[in-house]
Structure formats: structure tokens, C-alpha cells
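Q: What does the predicted 3D structure of CFA46 protein look like?
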Amino acid sequence: KEILAKYHDLFTLQWEGVTGNMCVPSQAEWEQLLTNCSGFLFYGMERFMSHVLLNWLAAMNIPKCRLVILLDLVRSQQSYQRITNSDIHKSCLHIALERPTETAMLLSLTGVGSVIATQWYTTLQENAERLEVLFENLLSFGKTTGQTVHILR
């Protein structure tokens, strides 16, 4: 929340979304957020695709969304239990489609212009540091997504 507050004035006056862990967005809320945005940020636990329905995302058309930033793949005991219980009901192919590269491809196929995503499990603190670097370079310095990702590497 501190990072969002710090950069709020630099990127939009129409910031919309769900912050905190008080509620889990419904599929309709995910759809509204993705279809009505020019940029989308997910900062959360486990795989982004474990929060949205695969069939629903594959059928979407979201060309207005120019950038998706996925700072996911954080694991806690509670999130691991949730994902384990959820994955029991999925095929191996379905779970494979939730991996970072496959998620980026699916988002690209829906019309998203660029995807920045983590590739392996990490911590909330490391993702916070990545978010700070992303916002500083994209918003404060006006660097391109390519230049910013290069800095993150």
C-alpha cells in the first residue's frame, strides 16, 4: 500500500482495484478489472491463474490492456493448503497452463500488449522490491517496459 500511495499521482487518477486480503474478487470482478484497464497489477499469493478461471480467461478479448504485471508466486502455509486443495480437481494439463510462461502466452492471446511476470517462487518482500523498481523506472523515469525488465534482471 505504501508503494501504491507513493506513485499514485504519477500513473492515474482512476486507480481501481482490490487491495488487502479482506475479500477475494469474483470472476466478474476479475473480468471487469481486466477489460476496463490499460494496465493491470497482480500482487498476490501463489499463481495468478489459480485465482481466475482458465476457460474464462482464454475466451476474453482485452486489447485495451497494454501491460499486465504479475507479482505472484509467493507461498505461505495457508496459500499452499488452498492451492493444493484446488489443484486436486484439475488435470495435469490445466495446472501446466497456469505456469508463468503459459500464463503470459494466454494473456498475449487475449490481446494484452506486454506481460511482466515472476518465473519462480519468491517472497512478498522480494516482490515489493520488484514493484518499487518497476514503478520507479516506468513511472518516475519514464523508461520502457523492456528497459525496466532489463534493470530487474
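A (community wiki): The C-alpha cells above were generated from the sequence. The first strand starts at residue 39 and ends at 45. The two ends are 24 Å apart (CA to CA).
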